[in-house]
Design brief:
heterodimer, A: alpha/beta, Aspartate Aminotransferase, domain 1, Aspartate Aminotransferase, domain 2, four-stranded antiparallel sheet, 19 helices, 13 strands, B: 492 residues, alpha/beta, seven-stranded mixed sheet, 45% helix, globular
Chain lengths: 525, 492
């Protein structure tokens, strides 16, 4: 009887097996399946997996945010063994119970960017012709020392009248606070900029906000034009300071648009387009383009056509342009500098997306005075910047002194002619000497840097090789120059060398030191 | 049940558990996406700048972007902050009072600066300024080239010694813990960036200086949780009130990262005594938060009580000092508004390191630094200046308060600062903020004096007003009193 039953009972047995299989083994699956298949099966069968999925998302989010708590350092260069390890040993901060902000934790760590490490090394052992002839020569900071004598003479003659005599009598100024600078200084600056930029563009003082240097100007504009997490496009190589000015407190990212030596590091719009669309694909909101014109570090000037193309691009994508024109007056080549503001005079261009940053640290050598200016045609941005400038105001005595200096038209004219001549002299001599050593420089017509190609000296042809060469320059030759990787240059081997911190007479000394390194590289290869 | 059946079928069919999880999850995920895109549509860059949309269609090229350029919401929220404080400033700017040139103009009493001893400074600069800035032999190498962005070491040393003198006690300030900034407000902002993240909060006793919350909030995104002080306590800070506010904030889910107290306080001019400071330190330790002691008016304490700085308290402490930070304002101390020199003094190494780097955005001009180094090192001048300044402030305060008293307006007893905190509740028509603003408006338009209403100072009791007296002379005070009399006559 059982035998005949067997075949017919097989499917039954199988069916019987299944529930038994699921009920006996897999203790986890059964309850879920029971829920799913039981009363209100569809509802719970949906709710339970959804709830599980939601908690999974929460968990992943928390994991991601703790991972973001320790953001990756901006540059990936290996830290120098000596300094960084010593500061990592300082246990005071690490055993403190009280919490500081994420920003402070990130910033207080020792600098990894070689640009800052180099500046630090110089400050510890600075070169001085008489007191410390074996010190480290500073060629990494654009301090214009060529015309210090002219400035010194003027200040010595006029300090009494401009600041000391009239003093700090504010009653003559205004009974209310002007954080964004005295009107007299704005007017004087406007005239000065008009002169510096080829006498072809007029800046309205009511469109200007004064700040303590160009650095806070860039930061304030970043706050006004973008939110945290947004980005600016920036052509590389660029000034290493932008990373701090734009990223640190405003929280705006910088997306590099790589320029190559084949184009003499000139920006091309296709690269800009590409970078923009790639950013869009990643979901990053690009709010503007940050350019320096004349460029730092390369020293080339943007042509009028290029400026027009940039404006069209910005118009099309509905983004801003921040133009850092601090080197506008330090031109020495045959090309004429054209400010972005000059292009704007045409009717059909939307001025509200253009913002210009300028300062007196380079063109007038007054780096210690801390005078910078934002020129914008956008009323909202101006209103916000005026209020934010209270955090970076220029000291009243300095404002008086600078107003006085800028109003002395004869002095300014004389200074400009001499400055231009001396920059050209030193630049030509320096580039010539470098080429004799076999080091070619990019063609530049403005600024205070040579952008030198040392790829013949680095082994291997990579960022690592570049860093090793930089270290050689600092320890063997004892000169501080800026490696291209700090400027985010995509081609290794380029170095930024400032030539205005030394006099014409000191050039042979510097060249001699560079020769030492060149020879040591050649001999080791 | 056309919908349910297929789903149930899927759920109960082969691979039931798998599909029964995947399908609802997928649906849920798409639901979330839908919500996300919906909220994004609801919050577009809504604060478009409408000023500059293109009208001129002379250009032949079609312009896609008639949308105006994006301005960040954080910029727009900064410009939107238009309290009576700013409105009053504009009115004064249009019609400023001058004793001889414009005696009918609007008198500025909302400007909390001190120019009473500016003549002493000017005299000093007149005789020593050139040598101070250029040194001997005269050279610009000390003022023109790039300098360390967090201040010269010589100035830090000079400030350290100066602050000891101001406090009239031999408190030791370590110059390597100091970071120089372009004014005390920049110092507070930098500290805020260092101690708290976006969305965190600080406890701040009220009433506070108008514009203070902008300083803390604008760029950092750190909220201010007001800790109200009352007239019954004579506007002194009470620890119970602090405790209560802290717990309320915690319940609301706000992460409190520290306390900012101004000592002497602005506007009430109260000093924190030693016991309160110790209690505050205990409170901060218990809750594991920071203390920022804003001592930018330390040198202007003219009262009879002694001024106790947080630095003095910390001298006796040898552990758990990482949470205390002090702010000094040299412009206020030296009675030179516009000097733009302040300092952060922190006991926390990481904060000092971070603040030194952030100081690059708020640097003190090198000529000013040189001037200050010389001036602050001239010990006899500094001594004389501190004494005379205190005397003048005291005299001015007494005159002002006496004048107000004659009009029937009482002030709290201030021991420092440049203002008096007056109770004008008898003059307001309705005992609330609206009545207070109405009185402010009358004072501005009828009496033509610009004062700060208590609501701008987040004062919890209506009717209090702040009068800043330290930029005027005694003759001007008479004019002010006479003008306030006008309001009295008008109400009666």
């Amino acid at each position: 009887m059982t035998q005949t039953r067997k075949p017919s009972s097989k499917p039954e047995a199988r069916e019987a097996q299944n529930p038994s299989f699921s009920s006996s083994g897999m203790k986890l699956i059964v309850p879920l399946q029971g829920v799913v298949q039981g009363r209100g099966g569809l509802l719970l069968g949906t709710l339970v997996p959804c709830a599980l999925f939601y908690f999974l998302q929460l968990y992943l989010k928390r994991r991601r945010s703790t991972a973001n708590c320790n953001p990756p350092s901006p540059s990936s260069e290996p830290t120098l063994p000596r300094t960084s390890s010593r500061s990592n040993l300082s246990a005071r901060g690490s055993i403190s119970r009280v919490r500081i902000s994420r920003l402070a934790t990130q910033i207080s760590r020792p600098d990894e960017s070689l640009y800052y490490v180099g500046l630090d090394r110089v400050s510890r052992d600075p070169y001085h012709a008489l007191d410390n002839p074996d010190g480290v020569i500073q060629l990494g900071l654009a301090d214009n020392k060529l015309c210090l004598d002219l400035i010194g003479e003027w200040v010595a003659r006029n300090l009494e009248d401009s600041v000391v005599g009239t003093g700090l009598n504010i009653n003559g100024i205004a009974p209310y606070q002007t954080y964004d600078g005295l009107m007299e200084l704005k007017m004087a600056l406007s005239d000065f900029m008009h002169q510096v930029m080829g006498e072809s563009v007029k800046f309205d003082p009511s469109n200007m906000v004064l700040t303590a240097g160009a650095t806070p100007a860039i930061e304030i504009l970043s706050f006004c034009l973008a939110d945290q997490g947004n980005a600016f496009l920036v052509p590389t190589p660029y000034y290493p300071g932008f990373d701090r000015d734009v990223r640190w407190r405003p929280g705006v990212d910088l997306i590099p648009v790589h320029c190559r030596s084949a184009d003499n590091f000139n920006l091309n719009i296709t690269a800009l387009e590409q970078a923009y669309s790639q950013a869009r694909k990643r979901g990053v909101k690009v709010r503007g383009i940050l350019i320096s014109n004349p460029s730092n570090p390369v020293g080339n000037i943007m042509t009028q056509d290029m400026l027009y193309s940039l404006l069209d691009f910005a118009e099309e994508k509905n983004i801003h342009i921040i133009a850092d024109e601090v080197f506008a007056g330090s031109t020495y080549g045959s090309e004429k500098f054209v400010s972005l503001a000059e292009i704007l005079d045409s009717d059909y261009i939307d001025k509200s997306r253009v913002h210009i940053v300028y300062g007196l640290s380079k063109d007038l050598s007054l780096a210690g005075f801390r005078v910078g200016v934002i020129c914008s045609f956008n009323d909202s941005v101006l209103a916000a910047a005026k209020k934010l400038s209270r955090f970076s105001s220029i000291s009243a005595p300095t404002q008086r002194l600078v107003t006085s200096m800028l109003s002395d038209k004869r002095f300014i004219r004389e200074y400009f002619e001499t400055n231009r001549k001396r920059i050209q002299q030193v630049h030509d001599e320096f580039v010539d000497c470098l080429s004799k050593l076999g080091i070619k420089c990019a063609k530049s017509c403005a600024g205070m840097y040579c952008w030198a190609d040392m790829n013949g000296l680095i082994r291997p042809y990579s960022e690592k090789g570049e860093i090793e060469l930089w270290e050689k320059f600092l320890s063997i030759a004892k000169i501080n120059i800026t490696p291209g990787s700090s400027c985010h240059c995509i081609e290794p081997g380029w170095f930024r060398i400032c030539f205005t911190t030394i006099t014409l007479e000191e050039i042979p000394l510097v060249i001699e030191r560079i020769r030492r390194v060149v020879e040591s590289c050649k001999s080791s290869s | 049940m056309r919908v349910i059946v297929p789903l149930q079928g899927v759920v109960q069919g082969t691979g039931g558990l798998f599909w029964g999880s995947v399908i609802p999850c997928a649906l849920f995920y798409f639901l979330q996406l839908l919500f996300k895109t919906k909220t994004r549509h609801h919050h577009p860059p809504s604060n478009h700048n409408h000023h500059s949309t293109l009208h001129r269609s002379l250009s032949p090229t079609p312009r896609h972007a008639t949308a105006s350029a994006y301005v960040s919401p954080r910029a727009n929220s900064i410009t939107a902050a238009n309290s009576p404080y700013y409105l009053g400033l504009h009115r004064v700017a249009d019609d400023p009072y001058h004793q001889t040139h414009n005696p009918q103009g609007v008198i500025q009493l909302a400007f909390d600066q001190n120019t009473l001893s500016l003549d002493l400074i000017q005299e000093w600069i007149h005789s020593n300024g050139t040598a101070a800035m250029l040194g001997k032999p005269l050279s610009v190498s000390g003022i023109v080239p790039y300098q360390p962005l967090h201040g010269f070491m010589e100035l830090k040393l000079a400030v350290a010694r100066f602050m000891s003198r101001v406090l009239e006690k031999p408190v030791f300030f370590n110059p390597s813990r100091m970071v120089l900034t372009a004014g005390a407000t920049s110092a507070i902002e930098i500290l805020t960036f260092c101690l708290a993240d976006h969305g965190n909060a600080f406890l701040v006793p009220t009433p506070l200086s108008p514009g203070f919350d902008g300083v803390v909030k604008w760029r950092t995104g750190v909220e201010i949780v007001p800790v109200p002080c009352r007239s019954t306590d004579d506007f002194n800070l009470s620890i119970t009130s602090l405790e209560r506010t802290f717990n309320q904030a915690k319940k609301r889910g706000q992460k409190v990262r520290g306390i900012i107290m101004t000592n002497p306080s602005n506007p009430a001019g109260k000093l924190l005594n030693r016991e309160t400071l110790l209690d505050l330190l205990d409170f901060a330790r218990e809750k594991n938060i920071h203390i920022i002691s804003n001592e930018m008016f330390a040198g202007s304490s003219y009262g009879d009580e002694e001024f106790v700085s947080m630095a003095e308290i910390m001298e006796a402490e040898d552990h758990d000092r990482d949470r205390v930070h002090i702010v000094f304002g040299l412009s206020n101390e030296l009675s030179v508004p516009g000097l733009k020199a302040g300092a952060i003094y922190s006991y926390n190494d990481n904060v000092v390191a971070a603040a030194s780097k952030l100081a690059r955005f708020s640097t003190v001009s090198a000529p000013t630094q040189r001037l200050l180094i010389s001036m602050l090192s001239d010990t006899s001048f500094v001594q004389k200046f501190i004494e005379v300044n205190k005397l003048r402030l005291r005299k001015m305060y007494d005159t002002f308060v006496a004048g107000l008293k004659q009009l029937g307006i009482e002030c709290t007893r201030s021991s420092g600062g440049f203002c008096c905190w007056a109770d004008m509740s008898s003059l307001i028509r309705s005992y609330n903020e609206k009545g207070e603003l109405e009185l402010w408006d009358r004072l501005l338009n009828v009496s033509k004096i610009n004062v700060t209403p208590g609501s701008s100072c987040h004062c919890i009791e209506p009717g209090w007003f702040r009068f800043c007296f330290a930029t005027w002379t005694e003759k001007d005070v008479c004019v002010v009193m006479e003008r306030i009399q006008r309001i009295y006559d008008a109400t009666k």
